[in-house]
């Protein structure tokens, strides 16, 4: 296939990966200038390559430009607070892990609906946990118990037994005051989502004139409205905010209504309570209707906003919450707080609903996977979808488990803090205690799995030692250096075991969660009390599991926040943890509006606008060069171009997770069909990777009518085994970094840049490699 090489100037657009980079390092020049963009993300050139109007000063070679986007995902240590919303981010990932299938089918719509319902359950779970801490443990149990209130003097004004009580000592008024905490949490989530919605979702992609795509297999990433989820996020934010406020209102109102239903209670308050419960039920149905009805609009830029829904639904629920608080604060002589609020039913219903939704999601995903999508694609490898299409349900299960662990951990820790001896309070709901008790069992399963993976990695290391010796002709060589190279290669393969780890963890979590739910509902007592009368060994094991699980949840929560903060402050830690975070925040918020914002909704339009305006103004050609996560952004930006502009783009990727991670976990958008279509549409694509790289890997597109083979043979790492004239000192193992150090990188880059020069023929044949 011949492609025209007409055009003016040529451009090389560099996109860095995880961990960020400076324009000076990317352009290999200490003098750089920003030609477009702001402090968050911008395009830079060397000073010598930019004139007063930003045009190229040198026309005899492609002009390099660096797109720096690191400030979209990194910042100061307070960014670690986003990690508290990790369950929301994980369930949003499940939405995009749908198996490849034809768009618009009922199964595809049902898949998205189930994920949105799972996301809604997580919002309710988070607010319910805040209600458990503030309303039940603090205002109801501790403030209503003389011994506990005396231990915490700041609760004295709430207790009816301390200083003869006061106006706030009535149980309903205590609950109304404590309800301000979960209400403030819901407001904070709304504020964060609204603020990031203005900063990210408001960035409009290129509004291009539609053109017919060249052939089958094109992904939704090429649709004009894919990176513009402003309307959907606003609608979901309204629904989830209303769900949080309704949860607070239900926690307060049901306690007061239960008191009013007792024989001899005031008839007027009873009628008012029943009316409020009916209004809460109607509000819940309205929220579910909004979540079920509203999906994404991708085929066009949807600039409209449902102002009536976005404003009125949260406002209506806020008014209903205020009425409920006023109803609960009404004086009820003789009302005393005792026992627990009905949290067992609440958390049990949420856990049961999440289990049903995940199982239904697994059934739909299995059906979609068996359907096979668009069929086989020539030159593309198939059968690599994570967990045979069940990656989305497995990740959704992990999101629910994370939400449960975080909710249970906070509740257990607050209960232990308020009631140090464990004799004053009834503690958190029984289900949360059962969930804490299964944590040691889950950790034991994971330790066994890690031991098995360690054993297989050790065996693979032994096999790789022989391969290293053959490749470097190092026999006998240096055993220590051979071992380091072999170990790096073996450790890099652990990335490919990710589906096994996720699958085992998800299955174990589902089974143990079902056991905890059955234990809580079957006995109505904690694991220790449920084993009363059993042998001493059984009772000791139950007691140990309950105590150890409670402490592990709290410790894990603290470590989680600590590691998250370190990941944002320490560059080395960010390179290790950052890829997982950047994968999670790459995708738009389609299932949960309170998830961390999608940086690609700014980065992809940036790159697309730059490439489109360049080709439109100069009629030139360009090569976009992406490392690691930058290669995914580069591919996504190329998909957003018109097919006629896409044909003027060459792509160089290195250390790229585009198939190894994205292709396996997101087959509907980066599967073999989508990658083959991109390969067919662009001018040329070359991919570099190393066997020691735990992130990057091959694209696995072979040579056929789509063009040349994409993957370069694996680069040597290290470049030389021992000391040579070219490398007089021992070379380091580079792994995922510094691909530019390999001579093959310069060769492949030069080949792509040569295609951009008008005087060089741009023939593309299947024999090219």
UniProtKB/TrEMBL annotation:
Tree of life domain = Bacteria
Q: Which SUPFAM superfamilies match?
A: alpha/beta-Hydrolases
Looking at the keywords, is Membrane present?
yes
Is the Cytoplasm keyword given for this protein? no
List the transmembrane segments. Answer: 80-98, 110-130, 175-192, 238-256, 276-292, 313-330, 350-369, 390-411, 431-453, 499-521, 541-564
Q: Which UniProt keywords apply?
A: Membrane, Transmembrane, Transmembrane helix
Q: What's the name of the protein?
A: Integral membrane protein
The species is Streptomyces phaeofaciens
């Amino acid at each position: 296939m011949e492609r025209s090489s007409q055009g003016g100037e040529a451009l090389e657009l560099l996109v860095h990966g995880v961990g960020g980079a400076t324009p000076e390092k990317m352009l290999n020049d200490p003098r750089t200038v920003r030609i477009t963009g702001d402090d968050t993300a911008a395009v830079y050139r060397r000073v010598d390559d930019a004139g007063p109007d930003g045009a190229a000063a040198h026309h005899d070679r492609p002009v390099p430009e660096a797109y720096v986007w690191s400030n979209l995902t990194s910042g100061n240590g307070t960014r670690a607070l986003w990690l508290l919303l990790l369950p929301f981010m994980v369930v949003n990932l499940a939405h995009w892990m749908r198996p490849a299938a034809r768009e618009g089918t009922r199964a595809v719509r049902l898949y998205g609906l189930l994920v949105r319902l799972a996301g809604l359950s997580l919002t309710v779970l988070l607010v319910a946990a805040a209600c458990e801490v503030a309303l039940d443990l603090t205002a109801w149990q501790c403030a209503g118990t003389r011994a506990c209130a005396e231990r915490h003097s700041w609760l004295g004004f709430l207790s009816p037994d301390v200083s003869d009580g006061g106006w706030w000592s009535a149980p309903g008024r205590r609950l109304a005051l404590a309800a301000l905490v979960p209400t403030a949490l819901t407001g904070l989530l709304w504020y964060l989502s609204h603020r990031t919605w203005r900063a990210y979702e408001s960035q409009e992609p290129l509004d291009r004139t539609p053109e017919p795509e060249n052939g089958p297999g094109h992904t939704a990433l090429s649709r004009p409205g894919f990176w513009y989820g402003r309307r959907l996020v606003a609608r979901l934010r309204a629904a989830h905010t209303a769900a949080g406020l309704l949860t607070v209102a239900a926690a307060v109102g049901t306690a007061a209504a239960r008191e009013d239903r007792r024989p001899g209670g005031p008839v007027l308050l009873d009628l008012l309570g029943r009316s409020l419960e009916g209004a809460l039920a109607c509000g819940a149905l309205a929220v579910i209707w909004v979540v079920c009805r509203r999906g994404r609009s991708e085929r066009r830029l949807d600039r409209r906003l449902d102002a009536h829904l976005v404003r009125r639904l949260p406002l209506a629920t806020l008014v209903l919450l205020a009425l409920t608080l006023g109803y609960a604060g009404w004086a009820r002589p003789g009302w005393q707080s005792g026992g627990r609020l009905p949290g067992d039913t609440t958390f049990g219903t949420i856990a049961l609903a999440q289990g049903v939704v995940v199982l239904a999601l697994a059934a739909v995903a299995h059906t979609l996977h068996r359907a096979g999508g668009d069929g086989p694609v020539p030159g593309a490898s198939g059968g690599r979808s994570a967990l045979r299409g069940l990656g989305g349900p497995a990740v959704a299960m992990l999101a629910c488990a994370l939400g449960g662990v975080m909710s249970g951990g906070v509740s257990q820790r607050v209960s232990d803090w308020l009631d140090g001896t464990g004799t004053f309070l009834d503690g958190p709901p029984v289900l949360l205690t059962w969930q804490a008790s299964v944590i040691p069992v889950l950790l034991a399963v994971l330790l066994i799995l890690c031991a098995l993976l360690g054993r297989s990695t050790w065996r693979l290391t032994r096999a790789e030692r022989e391969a290293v010796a053959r490749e470097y002709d190092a026999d006998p060589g240096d055993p220590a250096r051979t071992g380091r190279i072999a170990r790096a290669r073996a450790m890099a393969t652990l990335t490919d075991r990710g589906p096994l780890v996720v699958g085992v963890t998800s299955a174990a979590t589902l089974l143990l969660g079902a056991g905890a739910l059955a234990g809580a509902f079957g006995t109505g007592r904690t694991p220790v009390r449920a084993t009363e009368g059993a042998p001493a060994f059984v009772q000791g094991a139950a007691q140990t599991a309950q105590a150890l699980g409670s402490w592990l949840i709290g410790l894990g929560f603290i470590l989680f926040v600590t590691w998250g903060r370190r990941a944002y402050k320490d560059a080395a830690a960010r390179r290790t943890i950052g890829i997982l975070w950047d994968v999670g925040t790459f995708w738009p918020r389609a299932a949960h509006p309170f998830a961390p914002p999608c940086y690609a909704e700014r980065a992809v339009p940036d790159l697309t606008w730059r490439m489109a305006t360049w080709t439109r103004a100069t009629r030139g050609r360009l090569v976009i060069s992406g490392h690691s996560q930058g290669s995914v952004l580069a591919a996504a930006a190329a998909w957003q171009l018109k097919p006629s502009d896409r044909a003027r783009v060459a792509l160089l990727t290195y250390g790229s997770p585009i198939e190894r991670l994205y292709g396996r976990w997101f087959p509907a958008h980066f599967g073999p069909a989508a990658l083959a279509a991109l390969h067919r549409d662009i001018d040329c694509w070359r991919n570099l990777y190393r066997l020691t790289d735990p992130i990057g890997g091959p694209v696995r597109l072979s040579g056929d009518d789509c063009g040349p083979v994409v993957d370069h043979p694996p680069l040597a790492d290290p470049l030389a085994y021992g000391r040579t004239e070219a490398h007089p000192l021992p070379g380091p193992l580079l792994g995922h970094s510094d691909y530019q150090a390999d001579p093959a990188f310069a060769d492949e880059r030069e080949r792509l840049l040569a295609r951009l020069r008008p005087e060089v023929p741009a023939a593309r044949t299947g024999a090219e490699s």
